[in-house]
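#structure-requests
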Amino acid sequence: MKQLSFLLLSGWLMLAAQTGYAHALDPGYLDLRQLTTNTWQVLWRKPDVNGSPMDIDAVLPAQCTQRRGLDPQSDGAAWIATWVVDCEGGIAGQTIVIDGLEQQRNDVLLRIQPISSEPSTFRFTPDTPVLTIPERPSTWSVLTSYFRLGFEHILEGWDHLLFVFALFVLVRDPWRLVGAVTAFTVAHSITLALATLGVLNVPGPPVEAVIALSIVFLALEILNRKDGKLRLSEQYPWIVCFCFGLLHGLGFAGALADIGVPTDDIVAALLAFNVGVEAGQLLFIAALSALIFASRLVLPALFQKAGAVATPVTGYAIGCVSMYWLVERVSGF
């Protein structure tokens, strides 16, 4: 109970100390919806950076009228502009540029919705700010694109990574850890698929709050851990991870909903996204394991001395951050 009170107090203090600084982590979004043979409706969503739109701009193909949009307006989370263009001859085989993206750390998602075919999704990165629109994306391009989306999403999702990190600290047995991570992946794959197919429809804010609460639970398990006596999450980590994985899958679904899934390749997109998430989790665990191994090898004496205090300090650190997220997300309902 003392640990929970401390974590709750820390969460409120961290929230009160927030200065309003924000940096864009969400990707930009460019949506092209075909209205007639040569007419397209454009929606251009720029990430918000400290109250101003990110310094990037979408440049449409040369044959399109008004290649750049009007000044965007803030909706509180991003900066949005909409306009209609005429693109003589269509846009297939033409190039779209995100000007200034090479100077940023964000990606930009492009969703094209033709009248006569299924929507398709593409991705601009700082290394590839120019894309040529294909006639129709192949299944292989869908697989590679959504694998990368899943891989990058887990590595950029701090709450999901912190959950995996807490699991790494708590579960010492390698096989139990692998089983727990696998159960987590299976569970979030189920709810991600159900939400994407429209079977489940859960509001995002409560899901994000419960995700933070799941990390608080693991932090308390770490702090209450005793040698020679296994906690529930240590004895049956796959059960705990499966239950929480169902919730995290709904969080992934919210991110994937913003991106969109090609309905003619929905199975390939979901499979690739989940495999990408799993690959990101395993890479993160491998990096943590390598760091622990190197510490034992290079500084064995210091590692042994620090071991006694490292676990409770890590538990409190995880708990403070996750409690801050919980308080912030609940207060934002």
